[in-house]
Structures are given as C-alpha cells and as structure tokens.
Amino acid sequence: MKRLFDIDPWKVKTSTFQPEDKRLQESLTSIGNGYMGMRGNFEEGYSGDTHEGTYLAGVWYPDKTRVGWWKNGYPDYFGKVINAMNIIQVGITVDGHQVDLAKDTFRDFYLESDMKTGVLTRRFVWTSEDKATEIQFVFTRFLSIVDKEMAVIQVKAEVLKGQPEISLKPGLDNQVHNEDANYEEMFWEQVSENVAPASVTVRTIKNNFGIEQFTVTGLMLNDVTGLELSGSEVANLQAFETYTGRVSEGDTVVLTKYVAMVTSRDVEPAEQEAKATALAEAAKAKGFEKMLAENVGAWEVRWQKADVKIVGDDEAQQGLRFNLYGLFSTYYGEDDRLNVGPKGFTGEKYGGATYWDTEAFIVPMYLAVADPEVTRNLLQYRHNQLDNAYVNAGKQGLAGALYPMVTFTGIECHNEWEITFMEIHRNAAITHAIYNYTKYTGDESYRVNDGLDVLVGTARFWADRVHYSKHAGKYMMHGVTGPNEYENNVNNNFHTNRMAAWSLAYTLETLKGADDSKVKELAVTEEEKEKWQAVIDNMYYPYDEELGVYVQHDTFLDKDLMPVSDLDASDLPLNQNWSWDKILRSPFIKQADVLQSIYYLRDQFTLEEKERNFDFYEPMTVHESSLSPSIHAIIAAELGREEKAVELYARTARLDLDNYNNDTEDGLHITSMSGAWLSIVEGFAGMYVTDEMLTFKPFLPKQWEAYDFKINYRGRLVDVHVDKEGVRLTIEEGESMEVKLFDEIVMISDTITKALQ
Amino acid sequence: MKRLFDIDPWKVKTSTFQPEDKRLQESLTSIGNGYMGMRGNFEEGYSGDTHEGTYLAGVWYPDKTRVGWWKNGYPDYFGKVINAMNIIQVGITVDGHQVDLAKDTFRDFYLESDMKTGVLTRRFVWTSEDKATEIQFVFTRFLSIVDKEMAVIQVKAEVLKGQPEISLKPGLDNQVHNEDANYEEMFWEQVSENVAPASVTVRTIKNNFGIEQFTVTGLMLNDVTGLELSGSEVANLQAFETYTGRVSEGDTVVLTKYVAMVTSRDVEPAEQEAKATALAEAAKAKGFEKMLAENVGAWEVRWQKADVKIVGDDEAQQGLRFNLYGLFSTYYGEDDRLNVGPKGFTGEKYGGATYWDTEAFIVPMYLAVADPEVTRNLLQYRHNQLDNAYVNAGKQGLAGALYPMVTFTGIECHNEWEITFMEIHRNAAITHAIYNYTKYTGDESYRVNDGLDVLVGTARFWADRVHYSKHAGKYMMHGVTGPNEYENNVNNNFHTNRMAAWSLAYTLETLKGADDSKVKELAVTEEEKEKWQAVIDNMYYPYDEELGVYVQHDTFLDKDLMPVSDLDASDLPLNQNWSWDKILRSPFIKQADVLQSIYYLRDQFTLEEKERNFDFYEPMTVHESSLSPSIHAIIAAELGREEKAVELYARTARLDLDNYNNDTEDGLHITSMSGAWLSIVEGFAGMYVTDEMLTFKPFLPKQWEAYDFKINYRGRLVDVHVDKEGVRLTIEEGESMEVKLFDEIVMISDTITKALQ
C-alpha cells in the first residue's frame, strides 16, 4: 500500500512532488471525457521516469501476436489501445533554460485533480539557478464533456522576482510509442503537418488483418497575453508554436491552448482539418471561462444523479468518488461503438477495449447511477458485434455466437488459448446483463428484439459446446476456464455449466414472449428448442453431498485443500511469488467462481446454500483480481456477516488511491471501480430488484456515521440515507412507488424512515 | 503421400528433377557425420524455391521467445539449432552465364544418395541457350566420419560440345539466416575473413541469457585441374576463389574442395585458423580417393553391426536403411555433449536439440545396433545436465531434478507452459533408459554411480510434485500432460503416475545396491525414502472396473468416446483440420499414452490387460505423432495381431521417403527413425531381454520372404534370420549363450534353427 495524495472528500491533491512515484502520480491524476483522455503528465515535459500517455476511444491497432506454437483457432492479433498524439505539451524556457522539474529548483508545489469539476490543476514556484528569478507557474487542464473533441490547457506564469525572458512552446506531438508494443513498432505514420493553424494529421500504419487504418487530426489555437509569437515549426508528426517575451516582476503571462481532436471514426480524413478548425475556433470564441463553466455544470449534473456520501469516513468517501469519477471519465454512454476499457484512458496495459467485466460489474451500477440509455448502449454494443461473435465460434468449429474475452470489433484478440476459447462463461455475463437491464428498467423492448438475437446466438453456442457423456448420462462441458483464472482447462466448472443452462432457459422463456415475426426471423427450430431443454434438464453439476457445496469443477476436491490463512505472508500475492505451475495446482482461488453464480442468480439459491458455499470457498480465495472482493462483500452482507462485508469492501474502495496491488503505475483498474459502489448499494444497503420491486435491507458499518446514495429507478431519482437512527428513502424526482424494506412492502410518496434491524 | 525417389535397397536416387518439390528433395538427400550436416542443396546455387541449410552439432542460439502472457516459471528463451556457414558452394559460369537449374536447359539429370557409403552425387548435361555448348557436370560430396571436421566436395565438368570458358567459384558463405527466427535476426556476426587460404571466421551474436557465443571458422583448400586461379574475394562473412579457363571439347576440368570446419566447442577462437589449416592440408595431402575410401570403409563397419535385410520387399528394405542411415548421420556417440535432435542436420524446425524421444525411442535401438559406449554417452549427456535439471524444477518451486522437454544445456527452452512444466513424464523416460541400458548390457556401473545421481534427482522431483489428496486418501498428480499431447493439463494421467511410482521404486532398489560412499554423498534421508515408499504404495491409478482398463486420466471416460473410424476422412489429420479447442476436448489420441507405460513396463502387465487396453485405446488413436505407430506395432505383435502390427509398421517405415505427414520438406523425422527398426526387432521378432536372457518370438509378415538383422549383445554379434522355414540365430562374433526362443531356453554356440510357431 502506498498513498501519494491527501485525504479529501472531493479532491485528489498533494503539496509534495515525489519523483520516485511519478508514474503512479500520472495514473491517479488521469483525466478523460469518454472520447479521449490522458495520464497526468506535465505540460512542460519531464526528463525523469515518466509514462506519457494519451488515448483516443476506439482508436487502436492489431499488434502482431506471438504465442508459443500457433494452432488452429488461436487469435491472429492482439488488439492494443494505442498511445496517441500528445496534445498537452507547452514547453517552457526561462532565459534560455528549459524548465524541468526533474532537474530544477522549485517550491510550493501543488497538484490537484478535482473530481467534482473534472479539472486538473498544478502550480509551483520556479527558481533560477542564480536565484535571481522566481516565477509562479499555474497549469489548468480539462477535457470538455460538453464539446467532447476539445481539450483546454492553460498556463499562467507570474514573475515574482527578476525580469526574465520567457518562452512558451505549445505543441502537438505524435512521435509516441506504446511501451507494450510487441515489436517496438511505431503504430503511427505521417500524413501532414500545418503551420497555421498548427495541426498534425497522422494515420495508423497498415496491418495484415483487414483492420481499418485510423486517421487522426489534432489542431491547436493558442490565446496568449504578454508574449509574442516568435516562431512556428513543424516536423515529422509534430507541430509547435513559440511565444516569447521579457516579463517584468509582478507581471503575469497567460497562454490558453485550445486543442481539437478529430478522428476518422467520426470525420472523413479529407474533412478533418476543416472540422477541427471549426471546433477550435468555436471553443476559442467561447473562451476559457465559459468552456470551464459549461464543463463544471455538466459534471454537477452527473454527480446529482450518482453521488454517494459517506459521513464519518473521508477515506472511504474519497475512494468511492474516485471510482465513480474514473468510470464516468471513461464511459458515459454517448457512443454505442465504445465500451469500458480495463484501463480506460489511464494506461495501455491489457490489450483490447472490452472485457466481460463490463456486463458483470459495470452494468449493475450504471443502471442505477445514470439514465437507462447509458446501459442500453452497452448492450447495443454487443448486438452490433454479434456477427463477429459467430465468427469466433466458427473459428473453433462451433455453432452460434462466442463473445470475445478481449476485443474492439467483436473478434477475439487476446492471446492465451486457455482464456480465449476456454473462459467462455463470459457469454453468460452478456446474456445476464440483458436480464439485469430488463429486470431493473422494466423495459422489455431490448430483450425481445436485438437482445433476442444475442440470446439465440449464445444459446446455439452453448448447445454445441456441451457434449453428452454416455458414461455419466449427463450433458457436460469440458475444457473450460472459470472466473477463477488460477485454474484453467478444467472440466465441468460449476459456474460455466450453471450459467449456460440458465442462459438457455432465459432464451427459451424470452422466445415465448417475442413477436412471431422476430421468432420467424431467427428460425429457431423445434429440434433446437428440444435440445436446449434437454441440456437444461440434464446438465451435470458437480456437487458434494457431504459438504453440501457445489464443486468448482470435477476434480477440485482432490486438491490439497487449505485456507489462505495457512500460507506464509511472503507467499502473497501468489501471482508475484509462485510459479504458474504451483498456482494452477493449488486450491487458491483468484476471484469468485461458484460464488459468481450465486451472485448472478441471487434468487435461485437458499441462504443456507449461500452460507455453506461462502464458508467453503471464501477462505481459499486470495482476491488477486480487483473484481473479487465486491462480490464476496455483497454475499457476506446478505448473510449478515457485516464485519466481513466491510473488510472486503475496504479492499476495493481505495484499490488505486492506495495502490494496493502495487500496479497502479500502469494505469487505473477502471472495470473494478464499480466494486465499492456495488459493495455499499447491493451489499450494505442490500438493494435488489425482485418481483418488479426495489428492495433494501440496509445496515450501517460501525466505522461510519451515515451513508447516502442516489439511484435512478424507472423514471425516479431516489435518495437512500442510512444512519444510526435508521434508513430514510426519499423520492427526489418522479412518482411514488412501493418498495420492499426489510421484507416489508411500504409505499413511498415523498419520504419514509425506518429503524435498522 | 508423395514419392520422389526410386525404390532401391541401398540408394535414394532419381533421374528426374522436380523443382516443385525441391525442399523435399533437399531433406531426403541430406548428409551428416554427427559433427555437421547439410541439406541436399545444389553446389552451384539455385534461384528457385529452396531451403539452404547447414548445421553444426551443438552450435545454437537462444532466440528470444514470445508467449501470450509471461508468467513465473515460463522459460526465458527458445533455443534454436542455427543455420551455419554454407560450405558446399561452387558457383559455375559458362561463357559468363551463371549455371542455374531453375532457369537453364539440361538433360540426363541424376541424383543419388548412397546410404552404404555416405556419398551424395549428382550429374546433368547442361546446354547453352544457343545449343553450341554442352557440358556434363558431376558433383560428389561427403562428410568424413573419419575426419569429422572435413567436408569434401568435388565438381567435374566435361565438355561434350563447344569450347567454352568455364569459371568455378568455390566459396564459404555465412550470410545465412534461420527461416524460423522469431525476429528475423541474423544469428551470426563477422569476426574475420582471409584470402589465402580462404577462410571465414564468425561468431554468434550476443544474447541476454548468459549463453556462450560460439565462434566458428571455415577454411577451404581447392585442388583444381584444367583451370587457373583468376581471383579471390572476401566480403562480410564470405570468402570466394574463382578458377577460370577455356576448355576444349572432350576435356574435363576437376575441382576438389576440402573444407575444414572448427568451432569454439573444441578449439579456442585464436587457434581455429591454424587448426583448420592443418586439417585441410592433411586432407588435401590424403587426396580425394583416399578420403573417400576411408569414409566408405568406416560406413561399412557401421553397417556390419547394424544392417537389417528384408527379402521380398525393397520398399521396406529401403525405408529401413534410410532410417538407420539418418540416425547414424545424426549421432554415433562420439561426443557426450551431443544428442539426437528431432531434425538432425536436415532442417531447423523445432527448437532445441534434445527431446525425451532419445531415451524412449532411440536408446533401445542403439543398444542393439552399436557399441554400448554409444548409448552410454547418451546417458552421460543427461548426467552432465543434471544441475540444470535441478534449476528447472527450482523455477517451478519444486525440489529435485526436472529434465527439460527441449534443450541444449539442460535448461528448458521450449515455449509452451502446457508442455514445459506439465509434460513431466519425460523425467521417467530418462530413468527408464538407465534401466534399459543396465538390463541390456548387464553393466551395472552407470546405474549405481552417475546414474544414481539422476535417479535420486528425479525421485526427489516426483516426491515433491505429487500431492496427497485427503479427500481420496491417495497420492495424486494434477496438472500434467501425458504423451498424448492432444490433451493437456489433465489430472492423474495414468502413464505419468505409473512411471513416477516405477521410477521411485527403481531408485530405492538401486540405492540398496550402491556403495555406501555414493549413498552418503547423495544424502538421501530415511524420511525421503519413507515418503518415496508411501507414494509408491498409495499412488492413485485411474482404473475402470467395468472396462477393465487403466483410464488415461481422471475424466477421460466422460468424453464423447468414439473410434477414429467414425470420423470423416476430411477430418484427418486432426491437427491440420480441427481447432485446438476441438482437439483437446475430443477423445482422439495423438500417440501411445496408457500404452506407453505398457511398452515401457512390459513385464508388469498381463497379456489380458495389454489386450483390453490396446483394444480400448488403439481405435481412438490417430497416430499423428511419428512416434506412435511403432509402439502400437510392438504391442500388437506381442498380442499376436500380426496384420495389425504390419499395418502400423508400414506407417513408420517410409514416413519420410513417402512424405506421409506432408511435412518432410521441413526436414526428416530423425527421432522417430528408430520406429521401423523397433517394429521389426521388438515387434516382428519379439526380441526382449528378461531374466538376463535374450528372448525372441518371431513371425514373418506375409508380404515378406525373409528378414535378417544383426544385434550386438554383451560382446557378441548375433544374426537373426527369419524366413518361411523358420528362425535362424547365428553368433557371428563372441561366445555361445543361452537364449529364450518361443519361451524355450536354447543354447547357441554357432547356429540354431527353429520353425516358426
């Protein structure tokens, strides 16, 4: 654990600069607007250890992969989010000396990421070597969520002492590379550069996989007071302007840089320059203050719908808002071609843009904190990629649709066979999200139309992927990897078998409610339906009578079973200390596996079953996936294990802020950021939707005085407040409704209060 | 199946040149002398599709590997046999035109690889475009097995028509690359080149894995009659001489090229040039005829010990000798730092030099066809690498010694985790070879000394690799891959469990017979021995009572079992037509798995058990490993299934000559070349050593009139002749002895004959 920033309910801030943790600082001060984003790099440049990263949503490259020995059915490429044009650069020289915090003398350093407003600011007082000159620099940066193509960067320099000649050199620089490139390739090639207005147009290099080449134009307009334009230069993939002037003591110079970024995802290459010019000019005309005010206002609206307040624990408060902020900066549903990448705009580790994490961990939260359209777009994304899911299954010689583990287009682009064609439970996460969306919103329209295409496609996959074991007289699934990736190529993983059967049943049920025309279009035959029903009725589930638990997979109980508590502290985390061989053969579980089914299918297990399985598996779980603790916290809460729930919650709430896994320098764990929210809302507050009704069973963690969150539910904005006195539900917007509170049905018209139980 | 060469008992020859199969021709006409070897490339060069390959035993490079996602315990590099200096080049120009069979007109083409003498010859009559000139070229090439560093290449040009100016340009060319290089790197760097005598010295490039850089010097002396030296040139990694002259009709010019190759494996770089000069001068002094005669004589001695005659089936005869020739060209035991590479000197597919194939398939044959020292050196090789086997196990966090799947040094250098730390049955192949050597030779000295180091090291590995399942009350081994690589990461593979227990037992037994000093040196504790005994006594073996068969692994019977005969022909071979996912989940078996144990431990299974397991597994076996058919043929023969045995034999005998697997263009299947010999000797003739006695149960395949082979057994050379009359055993050298013939003990002093049963 390492904490770089101060505790503050709304801000990530610090007054100390720690060069040894520069990359971590950069990750934690990343900003994004769903269209683009960047790490917290320094505008003036930095000669020490740093990871410069700017990323454009949906702009990627299929990097040639390498596997031990390629075999039929392996993916051809490993898709990468690629490092894009650096647009924040404003080089600074004072009397010819280049300002560089890695080398220079400075004081009063302050860095702040304001989660409430989405603004990143930084300041410091710089001192020349001879101490004759002192300048206070203030940097302000934001990416507009109103004008998504616009980045605004402002640099103020106030001379406190001396009369220096100051040069500011704003630039656009696409000479960037990916640290994780497989062949140290540059993924960009030059198209053109312009002097006035300064712009750079680049294109991703050719590839052999039929993936489009992306063309991107960055264009900047600079508004400068106190300095004169002294030069412009363009180079291969770069464009710069230089503003210079002698500045008197007490005077302040200001540079405001308006950068427009357009990509061929939205704008034809031929029109990009004109479009970018128009955008930048419009932004410059609005001016810094108006652009800022609009952005702050837009963020305020988001927080009104989504904020969670924790009274009496600012650490938890900060952690929770940091997670919501990270998610909203990554994705807010404006573009159904996009999804929630594992690192968002904060780093480039992990290929691809889309994992099953979205459906399993993000959807349940977005349903409650944003408009239904946001989640609907996430579902639509999968429907758009259905054809390619059929291609993935076909590559394995299987019928139906297999959604990818990692993808941009729907085509699998991860590179481990034990994951790509084995960790197929992901298919069920996608159908379960349809179930979740429908259950929460009451909107059946997706399920019975586009959703049904997805349901039938995945059902056809499951029906072909199972095999009938004459020996056992059951349908089985061999060669799978469950959510617990610390085992792979196992047989009859309970979770995969259970969710496959559930998906088939949900599909059959959905078919009943669909229009004949739709059913006809899908041409599901009676034979198919019979096969699906046969699989549902005769699916094999490993179960141990004696223990009364579902067995993770066929031979799990033969392992040398022991709790994590028997391990030496030095063994943990296993993935850093043990060989893969030892991990695979050990009984230790990376993340919820059997318990993932129990979380997904909450109604279908008795409390006693949940208790037995939780008590059996959780002690063997190392929670080395950031996705693990929240699911366990929610089940623990349901079981009334309040302390356990809070303990597990603590592992997700500040995962990145406190760098628990010692890997946040690579970027933030975006897709697990919903974990803390889920722990509080589905766990502590026990929120759940059943029988068309919102239900709550709240408790208050001892450490807290109160917590308060808002949820959007079927046209209403509901505030849930829990404190020592009890729980208070308030409908802030929308009509009154019945809810289930501690299993009792109550009507809320305005506000109701109830003591905790 | 494709057959390029004529049927001939001793020769691989053809009178037709088939450019479309150039690579296949090159593989099939490779030559080698255990020290170096090369594919059947053309001396004058060839501008069409070709794979030029020259290889030096033990000279390799650790190529950077790439895996999907590196994890602890994965190998760092993928060791490659690297393409070395091309020493056969003799460029030819006639009146300024470069002779090139890819473009020119020629007739009377003839190519012959004489397996009896080890000589490769080629001739053709070349015609100029204007038809005014005709020249007959004759090429003779051999690698001396007497002077191992020497290659001799002779080119004769007889002018049949015209009076052309002929230039011959012998050269040394190290501007070569590996087609399988992971990063298209050149593995060689320049050291120096000399004009007279023409030589090139090169060094393998640096690597980051602490592997030595090899320095190699090639030096040539040319003896030319009828042409004058007209020039010499050296370039980066190259050296050439040119001999030119006008030649009258009827005249013949002759160039004899003596090339000495020395490497830093034997000679310090500083001394290489002097050493190479001395070697080449000595060879040149001997002259072509003497060098040739010595080489032919040495091959004759090898054949006297090892030849197998098949009367009435020249195809089988040729196939069998081709296999012996390929093996002897690759390895004849002179250097215990070397082993039998999977492609020998015939190609560069597959990394590494040493596989478990050597112990499992080569050792049993070398024991009978060569002096005991040859096999002993193969055992010594593993002892030399024992320390690194401990390193391999340590990398997995395990005790003891884990021999590598693929290696040069003993360090694992393959790149698939499912093989490297899972296909551990290889450890037992190595201990079983000690058992085989001891049983066959009666020489206990290796087993109780160096061999015991290996036995104890592997025993310590097995004892740590198993785990005790409280649930089952048995020792188990999870996460293994058996010989059947069409499944991996399985639990309780019968073969692995069985051979592990056998190895432990053999080690305990050996410890009893060893000197106290040796035992003390190994410091095997009582606790260790008790643990080993406990594992032997309580090892879990999957067995099905109903079927009466050992189960390949825990869940094999749950598969959708079906025989290969149920497949559509278009599905085969599976590895070219099915996805890896489908193959892994299918019941189809690549090569003997349960049956491999039955082959290894012939005495420990009843005939009924063998029959039940053979009848259960063989029908599901696709034999897509070249190692598969021979083991099945031997067991079929033991079961009296003569037709089945012959059918399986046919799949190994001419695997390369008839290009059965359509991959011989990449090189020959060296390590499976013993398969045909094993099928005849251990299969058809039923040769086996038990109770210190040679035993035979021969039968004669219907298609044959007779077969005859020689074996070396405890100081004797025994000829075994089987024909329609019966079997005749003759002791050609050495003392008389008792043998078991059809279960009857008989004494052979000179010759005995017996009817077949």
From TrEMBL, chains A, B:
Gene3D superfamilies: 1.50.10.10, Glycoside hydrolase, family 65, N-terminal domain (2.70.98.40), Maltose phosphorylase, domain 3 (2.60.420.10). GO terms for biological process: carbohydrate metabolic process. Substrate binds at residues 356-357, 590-591. Residues 687-745 form the Glycoside hydrolase family 65 C-terminal domain. Keywords: Hydrolase. GO terms for molecular function: carbohydrate binding; glycosyltransferase activity; hydrolase activity, hydrolyzing O-glycosyl compounds. Signal peptide: none annotated. Pfam families: Glyco_hydro_65C (PF03633), Glyco_hydro_65m (PF03632), Glyco_hydro_65N (PF03636). The keyword Ubl conjugation does not apply. Residues 14-265 form the Glycoside hydrolase family 65 N-terminal domain. It comes from the Bacteria. The active site is at 485 (proton donor). Residues 321-677 form the Glycoside hydrolase family 65 central catalytic domain. InterPro entries: 6-hairpin_glycosidase_sf, 6hp_glycosidase-like_sf, Gal_mutarotase_sf_dom, GH65_N, Glyco_hydro_65_C, Glyco_hydro_65_M, Glyco_hydro_65_N, Malt_Pase/Glycosyl_Hdrlase. Belongs to the glycosyl hydrolase 65 family. This is Glycoside hydrolase family 65 protein.
